[in-house]
Design brief:
- The chain has 497 residues and is mainly beta.
- It folds into two domains: 263 residues, no CATH class; 208 residues.
- The protein contains six helices and 34 strands.
- The strands form four sheets. Strands 22, 23, 24, 25, 26, 27, 28, 29, 30, 31, 32 and 33 form a twelve-stranded antiparallel β-sheet that branches.
- A hairpin with a 6-residue loop joins strand 25 and strand 26.
Length: 497
């Protein structure tokens, strides 16, 4: 059997008699089959927050306080190669659950720039976000990252963050060296680690661990000169009384956060807002519909009251329908989306903002309608009324989206705001946005649409009552003076071995 020399993952390749045969993942050899290419894949998280693909299947939670379910396939196993000289390296899959002890049960969204990540904004307080991610390759890695964009309150030397790892499979807990354990594996046993990895292993033999790796806990930030600073972070680990759960506490130095934030004069933070679901407490979303039959376009646009309201529905049709009678119209819908953006606070400026809606089943019309975002001013912030139908403004906040170009399957449509839309974000209150077609709100520019007998335009919208990741989302990137440009991050990764 050839001798294999451990190196680091994605850094060096193990040579065996002149041919490349292996790479190393955080201290453990991870072998590939002879002749097979070694790859690493960034997998997109699906709309239901799942990643279901070899070798790491993950179910991310909808909210920050819930469990992540992980399943690592065992086909590529260092132990199997070393012990059995088996190129197939097949072992049973390892199942794990992971939960951050976040104080705020934030709603998760898929990171539009890094689609293998789910972000839970302000899960650990204002400016302190929780991020989960999944990397797939011949081995799989689950990311657990906390992003800090402003100094948390208090004056303690350390900030403490707890998380839990649970597995009926992972019954042995070993240290940085494969042949030693820093603790015995009994209830209450624990260890403090800093600057090296620990393993939660399957099986009772510490010499041949097979399981999940907590990679070296680190924090890092990017400096103004483009260099990166990285430091180790202390983590305490303790086996719980059920012998299947490990509690870990990370100790983050406040001085490290201050050093990161002191690198610049401006910081930027992305925050996401959703309307309240029924029963509403601060804001709402919904549709108003004028369903008065046989009106001219001028009259249906000028109608002051809605005949139908949709406030507590999980989905509703945004529709504009023509009647069979010449130049007459039956239906005209308008949307109302309110967001509590008061947490941004004073002294901030909007760098960018956008509104995203989950839509489906557009009607293929011949009207050339474009859906766009405008202001709205309903009488109440928490409930819709018939008189709110005519409360929309006439200034477009974005570039309109042609309805016939939208997908006929559920997809997310995002309107990126112009300067008028950015100015409508209320930093200390409720931001209010309306949805309408251009011929409705911009009639002075567009004129009347060309009537087509019995033709229909529109699409289905998911509202806050739908829950999950498909509800209306307002994303605001804002900045302020006298704060740090770099974000401060710390992480540890669960790694299949």
């Amino acid at each position: 059997m050839p001798e294999f020399v451990p190196t680091f993952w994605n850094t060096l390749t193990q040579h065996n008699v002149g041919s490349r045969t292996s790479k190393v993942a955080t201290g453990q050899v991870a072998y590939k089959k002879k002749g097979a290419a070694w790859g690493h894949v960034d997998s997109s998280v699906q709309g239901d927050f799942t990643v279901e693909s070899f070798p790491g299947c993950v179910q991310f939670p909808a909210n920050a306080q819930d469990w992540v379910d992980l399943s690592f396939d065992g086909e590529y196993s260092a132990k199997s190669q070393i012990v059995n000289s088996d190129w197939h390296n097949s072992e049973d899959a390892l199942g794990l659950r992971f939960r951050s002890d976040a104080p705020t049960n934030s709603i998760g969204i898929i990171n539009p720039e890094k689609p293998w990540q789910v972000i839970y904004y302000n899960a650990f307080g204002s400016g302190c976000n929780l991020i989960y991610g999944i990397w797939r390759g011949k081995t799989s890695r689950f990311e657990h990252v906390i992003e800090i964009t402003e100094m948390p309150p208090g004056d303690s030397e350390f900030l403490e963050y707890d998380f839990y790892v649970e597995s009926d499979d992972a019954t042995t807990f070993v240290g940085a060296n494969h042949d030693s354990r820093p603790w015995a594996g009994n209830s209450g046993d624990g260890a403090t680690v800093e600057g090296f990895s620990i393993f939660l292993a399957k099986g009772d033999d510490p010499a041949t661990p097979r399981g999940s790796v907590l990679r070296t806990p680190v924090c890092w930030w990017t400096n103004l000169d483009g260099t990166q600073t990285k430091k180790n972070v202390r983590i305490d680990v303790e086996i719980q009384s059920d012998l299947a759960t490990v509690k870990a506490t990370k100790y983050v130095r406040r001085s490290d956060i201050q050093e990161a934030l002191s690198q610049g004069s401006v910081y930027r933070a992305d925050v996401t807002f959703n309307p309240d679901a029924n029963p509403e407490t601060t804001c709402f979303d919904g549709l108003t519909l004028d369903a008065n039959n046989s009106l001219s376009w001028t009259d249906i646009v000028a109608a002051t009251d809605a005949s139908n309201l949709y406030e507590s529905d999980s989905t509703a049709d945004f529709r504009i329908w023509a009647k069979s009678s010449t130049d007459k119209w039956d239906f005209l819908s308008r949307g109302h989306f309110l967001f509590d953006t008061s947490s941004i606070g004073s002294g901030q400026s909007v760098d960018s903002a956008s509104l995203s809606l989950s839509v489906d089943k557009n009607y293929f019309d011949e009207f050339d309608f474009y859906a766009n975002i405008y202001s709205t001013s309903p009488a109440s912030n928490t409930t819709i009324a018939t008189g709110d139908h005519d409360s929309l403004g006439t200034t477009p906040f974005s570039t309109g989206k042609k309805i016939t170009d939208m997908s006929t399957n559920w997809t997310t449509e995002t309107w990126t705001f112009n300067t008028d839309g950015e100015a409508a974000v209320d930093m200390e209150g409720i931001s209010k946005f309306g949805l309408a077609v251009n011929y409705d709100r911009e009639v002075g520019t567009t004129g009347d649409p060309t009537w087509v007998a019995s033709d229909r335009s529109g699409f289905v919208i998911r509202f806050a009552e739908k829950g999950g990741s498909h509800i209306p989302v307002l994303t605001v990137t804002h900045s302020a003076a006298s704060s740090g440009s770099p974000h401060y991050y710390y992480q540890n990764n669960q790694h299949a071995s």
